[in-house]
Every structure is written in C-alpha cells, then in structure tokens.
Amino acid sequence: MWSCLPEFCIICATRCWPVPRWRWVTRKHCLIETHVIDNSVITPEGVHSLAERAPALASLPVSQFYERGELENDPSNWFGPNIACVLAWFRSAGFAIEHLTTWGGRAAFRAQIRPGKPPYHQDSYEGWMFGDPRFSLL
Predict the structure, then answer these.
(1) Residues facing 47 on adjacent strands
(2) How do residues 98-134 score in pLDDT, each as one tens digit?
(3) Which of 41, 42, 60, 117 is the S-S candidate for 121 at Cβ 3.0 to 4.6 Å?
C-alpha cells in the first residue's frame, strides 16, 4: 500500500514491490514501513534473530525467501529482507535512505530521491534497456 502527498510518499510494504517503481511514485521524500528479518528469521525450529542464526550474515544485505506462506500464513509474502538489504535496495534505486527504528519484525525508514540516474540504470541491463522503445514496459 502507498499514498502520495505533495512532498511525501508513504509506503507500508507488505509485498515485495520493485523498489525502482517507488522512485517513480515518490516526488521527493519517502517513508517506508516493512517487514525485516533482523529479529525474525523463520526456521523450522521457530523464529530467531539473524545475528543468532547466522552472525556472518547479519551486516550483509540478505533476504529470506518464503516459499509457501511461512510469513504470517500468507502465500503472497515472498521475501523478508534484513535492514542492510532494504538500505541497499533503496540506494541502488537512487535514494538516500536512513533506518529510523525497528520493532519486532518491522522497521521504518526515511528516504529521499537523489538527483540523476539511479545506480541500477548505470550498472545493469535495466539501465541500457530503460528508454529503449523496444522495452517500453520497463
């Protein structure tokens, strides 16, 4: 779900919507609230903190894949990123972003569009495809 005001775009990310699209609907600032796995990695044994289950991964941008509704019994919840992953996703989409707070398996962020082309346009095939009329759906 998202809502845009004159200066802000507010996103409650309950689904993994492509971050570059958020740049298209954001005018200047973006407030994001989403699920994160830093305190809630789901395993067959239960819910654990990422640092407890995989200390070497806690500071790297990683995402947990939910194959069959493991997150809240909802099969449309497919990915759970950690905080480092949310920060990296938004930076690559051309945002300056900061983590505001975390509570349980949720976190809040504030982002602002950086001027110019986002890094994913400069460093990936999406960049050279973007703007080419043969790939107008991108």
Answers:
(1) 42
(2) 999 999 999 999 999 888 877 766 655 555 555 554 5
(3) 117
At 23-39, the pLDDT tens digits run: 667 778 888 899 999 99
What are the φ/ψ torsions at residue 33 (nearest 5 degrees)?
Answer: -130, 125
- Residue given tokens 């986002």 in the structure block: 118
79 burial class (0-12, 13-18, 19+ CB within 10 angstroms)? middle
Question: Alpha-carbon distance 43 to 30, whole Å?
Answer: 32
